[in-house]
Amino acid sequence: MSVDQSSDARLDDAESTELDAAARLHAAGTGTPLIYVPGLDGTGLLFYRQMRLLRHRYRVFTYRLRDDAPTMDALVADITHHLEVAVPDGSPVVMVGESFGGALAMSFAVAHPERVGALVILNSFTRVTPRATLYVALGAMRLVPWRTMQWVRTLTASRLHSAHTHAEEIERFLLLTRGTTREGYRNRLHILTRYDIRPALHRLTMPTLYLAADQDHLIPSVREARYMASQVPGATVRILEGHGHGCFLAPDLNLDQLLEEWSAPGAPFRHKLDG
C-alpha cells in the first residue's frame, strides 16, 4: 500500500474521484502526523473540512475501514499496517476517532500506546446499551433493501448533524456516504455487540481529549465523555455547545483551533509531543 501524495488536490476533485479517494491511505499537509479513524460509515471521506483546517500544522492521514473486517482486533491490525506505511519511523501520532472510530481509536491506543502521542475522541462511547438495539438494527438490515439507506440518511439528517450545518455540506455528506456497503455496516454493528472498553480505560495514559456535542441525538455523548474522562488519567472533556453528532461538517467547528487550545503552554498534550 502506498500513501496518496496528491490528496490535497483530490479534496476538490470531481464527485467520482472523491468517492474513490478513500479506497487507500492518503495524506495532506506537513508537520506532526495525525490519523483520522472514521465512524460507522467507514469511508474516511467525512473529514474533508477538518483536513483543510489541520494541514498547515499536521500531516493528516485518512483511510477507509475494511468492510470485511470481522473483529475489532482486525481493525486495530489494519491501523497498525497503515501507520507502518504512513509513519515508518514509528514516531507517535495524534489519533482522532469519531463515534465508532472513537471506539476503534481507543482500542488501538490500549493495544499500542507507544504509537499514540495524543488521543482525540469525538462523540463516542464505552459500549452500546441496550445491546438489543444493535440486534434490531442488524435484523432491519437483512429485511430492508440497501438502496433505501440513502433515503434514510436524508430523512434523519436534521438529527444527525448540527442544526446550523450548511445544506451544501449535508448534500456532500449524502454523496460521500453513497459508497458505504451493507457488509461494512453489518460487520461493524456485529463488532459493537462485543465491544466494551470500560475495563481498559485506565490503560489510556497518553494525553486524551474527549469532545462531546450537547445536541447529539444519536448517543449520550456528554454523559459518555464525562464517564470516560473520569476513568482515563488526566483526560480532558470539551463540550461542543449547539452541535449534533456529525459536527465535523459544521461551519464553526475547527478541530485545529481546539487542538491549539488544548496544547497551550503547560498543557499535557504539548508536553507529551514536545518531550
List the helices and strands and how they pair.
Blueprint: H1 7-10, H2 15-21, E1 26-28, E2 32-37, H3 48-54, E3 58-62, H4 72-86, E4 93-98, H5 100-111, E5 116-122, H6 132-143, H7 149-155, H8 157-160, H9 167-176, H10 182-192, E6 208-213, H11 221-231, E7 236-240, H12 255-262, H13 268-274
Parallel strand pairs: 2-3, 2-4, 4-5, 5-6, 6-7
Antiparallel strand pairs: 1-3
Helix pairs in contact: 4-5, 6-10
Keywords summarizing the entry:
disordered C terminus, globular, 14% strand, 275 residues, seven-stranded mixed beta sheet
Overall pLDDT metric: 89
Span between termini = 31 Å
Q: Regions with pLDDT < 50 over 5+ consecutive residues?
A: 5-23, 271-275
Assembly type of the shown chains? Answer: single chain
Shape: globular
- Counted by DSSP, the helix tally is 13
Classify the helix fraction into a percent range: 40-55%
How do the helices and strands follow one another from N- to C-terminus?
HHEEHEHEHEHHHHHEHEHH
Indicate the structural class: alpha/beta
- Rg, alpha carbons: 17 Å
Strand content: 5-15%
Widest sheet, order of strands: 1-3-2-4-5-6-7
